[in-house]
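fwd from M.: "can u put these together and see what the complex looks like"

so here's what she sent:
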Amino acid sequence: MESQNSLRRQLIVRMLLVMLPLFILLWIMAYFSSQYFINAAFDRSLTRRTYALADRVEVIRGRVHLDISVAAREMLAFDQEDLLFHRVIDPQSRVIEGDLDMPQLPGNKGLEPGQLIVYDGIKDGEKVRVAAFSLSLKGTSARGAVLVQVGETLSRRSALAKRATLAIVIPMLLMTLTAAAAIAYGVGRGLVPLRRLRDRLSAREAFDLSPVPLEGTPAELRPFLDEINSLLLRLSEAVDAQSRFVSDAAHQLRTPIAGIRAQAEAALVNAQPDDAQHALLRIAQSTQAMGELVQKLLILARVDAAENTLRLVPLDGVELVREIAREWVPQALSKGVEIGFDSRHSDAPLVGDAQLLREMLANLIDNALRYGGTHISLTVHRTEQGVTWCVADDGPGIPESQCAAVFLPFFRLSGGVDGAGLGLTIVQRIANLHGAKVRLDSENGATGLRICVDFPAGAT
Ligand SMILES: Nc1ncnc2c1ncn2[C@@H]1O[C@H](COP(=O)(O)OP(=O)(O)OP(=O)(O)O)[C@@H](O)[C@H]1O
Ligand SMILES: [Mg+2]
């Protein structure tokens, strides 16, 4: 379940990524600062021992001696962990006591009388720390200064520095791990509502599109749930519209089928050839109406399906509309209607699917022929926003109150020739696919209907 994208994992990884360099930095700082303080303390004790040894220097008749007991000498060399060593040199550079092998003074320079320094050195391949004191012999029977040096190896210092570092770093490490565990636990707890939500959603029926309840969900999830709910709402509206459409379509199909059946039965019982002929004629009309309805339903289904496979290509609106107008001329003439085409521009580029646009215009011209008067005019214009196609006729037009309703599937104005009521629905869906808007344009004082489709700019 814990995927690469898990919140919990991301939080912990990010926290550790920040903590790790901090942790290393802390470790280094802790090590160096504890070493600094431990060195200071140990150097002080080394200095004390150097002064104590210098105290034992005596001058007897101009000669330098060291008045030191065997026990004190042992003390000077004994330590549980570190190796201790010392050396005393008289003004004539003779070693009068201690180790011959003593790390040189830094810079190989001598000390001023009374000066004390503490320095690092190497003895027998091991790092050591040495305190050196130059004891002035002024006021005695000898002259010059005695150099007293006391040194020690560093085992105790480094062991202590390590321990002090760990004393700082280990609590810090524990704190980091505890924080990581707390985050992991907190995120786990925080995700409980999400898991509950998932269970609730997975337990739903396929057609349950009711909104997801918001109570008990964390505030961070609200915007996300609001979006899901609004999607569910749109989906349920779409499903409702779809099922309404299916039942309307079934109802529309039932009427001609019932007509056909009634006519067929009438023809069967009717012995008169004229009556039978009449019934057959009605049957032919009903089948034709049914054929047209089925044809429109198929077109609508094709338009809806085209949404996913739509390929809009650049084309010229002037040329396309002029060509379609020409194709409709014979049919219009047979009904005594005149079709005119007009454009202020030589071309009107737009992007679209020529076949769907042809279908759209065919529906508009078909309506104008069916419901209009004796003149149809097609216009194509370039506008600031894009390209506008209009189909205008000089018929009775559509009352303003019905202007929105005519785009609904199966809606027809009462009275009038047969039709399925799907033409303008198809027009609108095709326009939507092109990002275009359909509007009924009424010119003041003018009769008839003008339907315009505004295509957005976007053609190259
Ligand atoms: N040019 C027009 N003039 C007057 N009324 C119109 C015009 N175009 C459409 N209408 C009205 O709008 C209604 C809906 O038109 P639509 O094209 O959607 O359906 P239809 O023409 O009835 O059927 P179909 O086009 O599916 O065969 C029509 O029934 C008609 O009453
Ligand atoms: Mg129509």
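replying to her w this: The longest strand covers residues 126-136.
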